[in-house]
Amino acid sequence: MSATKEITTLTNDHNTNTVDLARLIEGEWYYVIDNCGCSSVGQWQSSHDRLSSTQGDGINVTSAKEIIKVAELRFKNSREFPLLNHPFVQRRYGFKILMEVPQQGFTLINVEQAMAVHASFPFNYTVMP
Question: Which of 32, 64, 81, 124 is most solvent-facing, going by the fewest CB within 10 Å?
């Protein structure tokens, strides 16, 4: 079972999202999915009430559908560090990984799905225990 937690909540008022900014931790990294389904990864800056992406862009948290804390933002390349060789993966299944696909962005998927990706399709990943 994954230990990730969603930070946003869905209100009954026109199904709008509200973000509990007090739950975001200064300097921590979060995976964000907005209402349009676009996703990004950003670091929380409480002084600006925003998440800064890995490219330095600001991410609008008010349009977030989900905000999930990233356990560790050290991506490994699937060719250099295959998932099957990762010590956490060898011990258990049933959790998610954050996958960065070149030219396509980020996606949060089950580790079993990621292990099924063909070896000729490289991606960067970090585990989300």
Answer: 81
Query: Phi and psi (nearest 5°) for 53?
Result: -75, 170
All structural domains of the chain, each given as residue ranges with its CATH number in brackets, are 8-69 (2.30.30), 76-128 (no CATH)
CA 108, CA 128: separation in Å to the nearest integer? 9
Q: Are 75 and 126 in contact (CB under 8 A)?
A: yes
Mean predicted lDDT score pLDDT of the chain: 75
**Strand runs labelled E in 1-129:** 8-10, 17-19, 29-34, 39-45, 50-53, 58-59, 64-69, 76-77, 96-101, 105-110, 124-128
One-letter amino acid at 115 equals M
Rounded CA separation 24/70 (Å): 11
